[in-house]
UniProtKB/TrEMBL annotation:
The chain crosses the membrane at residues 20-37, 43-60. This is Uncharacterized protein. Keywords: Membrane, Transmembrane, Transmembrane helix. The lineage of its organism: Bacteria, Pseudomonadati, Pseudomonadota, Betaproteobacteria, Burkholderiales. Residues 88-108 are annotated as: Disordered. It comes from the Bacteria.
Length: 108
C-alpha cells in the first residue's frame, strides 16, 4: 500500500501564540484601544483590559489545543444550525445541494 506523509503545517491553520492570527489581532487590538481610552480616565485602569485580553487568550488557546477548527465549526453551525427547511431556497442550486462549507466539497 502506498502512503504519503501529511505535512501538518500545510493542513492546519496558521497560529500565533496558540491562536489564529485573526483572534490575536481582535483580542489584543481591542484591548489596547480600550486600554488607551481607560488611560484617559486613570493610569491604572489600563491594567483591566490588558488583563482581560490575557484571560481571553488563555481561553481560546485551550479551545484550539483541543480542536483547531472549533471556531469554523461554530461559525458554520450558527449559519445553518439544526433547523430543517422543507421548502426550496433561492440560494441553493439544484436538488438536494447544500452551500459550500456544509458537508459539500469536503474530502472524506
Amino acid at each position: 500500500m502506498r502512503t504519503s506523509p501529511i505535512i501538518q503545517a500545510i493542513v492546519n491553520p496558521k497560529m500565533s501564540g496558540g491562536l489564529s492570527g485573526a483572534h490575536t489581532a481582535v483580542i489584543y487590538g481591542s484591548a489596547f484601544v480600550v486600554g488607551y481610552l481607560a488611560y484617559q480616565w486613570h493610569w491604572w485602569a489600563t491594567i483591566l483590559p490588558i488583563g482581560a485580553a490575557f484571560v481571553a487568550q488563555a481561553y481560546y488557546k485551550n479551545q484550539f489545543r483541543h480542536d483547531l477548527f472549533s471556531t469554523e465549526i461554530r461559525k458554520n453551525y450558527n449559519q445553518m444550525a439544526d433547523r430543517y427547511h422543507p421548502w426550496p431556497r433561492e440560494n441553493l442550486r439544484g436538488r438536494g445541494q447544500r452551500p459550500k462549507g456544509f458537508g459539500r466539497d469536503f474530502r472524506c
